[in-house]
C-alpha cells in the first residue's frame, strides 16, 4: 500500500516540483481538485477540473490526479450535501438513497435526472457554500507540506516516472 501511494500520488507530485512548477501552483491545483472533485453532480468533475485548469492556469496533472483520488468522497458526500442544502434552504428532505439513485441511473438516466434534479440543486447550493472554505483550508494545509519536500534528494536519485 505504501508503495502504491508513493508511486501514484507522491511521485507524480515530486516530478511536477522537479520540473519547476511552484509549490504554490501545485497546492492550488490540489486544493481545487479536492473541492471540484466533490461537486455533487456525478460525471461532471473532470470537465469542471479541466475548465478550472484553463481559467485559473492550474496544473492539469495535479488537479486531475486529486480529482480521481477524491471520487469516493464525491459519492460519500453526495447525500450529505443534499441534506445540508435542504437544511440551509429550509426545505423538506427529499426521499433519496444511493441505492435508489444508482438503480434509476442504470434503468433510465433521463428519469433519474428528472426525479432528482431539485434534490441535486440543494446539494449544489451546499457545495457553493462550503467549497471556498474547503479550497482555502486545503491550500493552507498542502502548501507547507509541498515546501518541505527535499527536492535535492530526488534530483540526485532521478525520480522520473
Intertermini distance: 18 Å
Strand content: under 5%
Count of DSSP E strands?
0
SSE succession: HHHHHHHH
Characteristics:
single chain, 80% helix, mainly alpha, 161 residues
Overview of the structural elements:
The structure is a single chain. The chain is mostly helical and 161 residues long. It has one domain (23-148). The chain contains eight helices and no strands. The mean pLDDT is 90.
Give the topology.
Elements: H1 2-18, H2 23-37, H3 45-56, H4 60-69, H5 71-88, H6 98-107, H7 109-147, H8 151-157
Helix pairs in contact: 1-4, 2-3, 2-4, 2-7, 3-4, 5-7, 6-7
Overview in brief:
The chain has 161 residues and is mainly α.
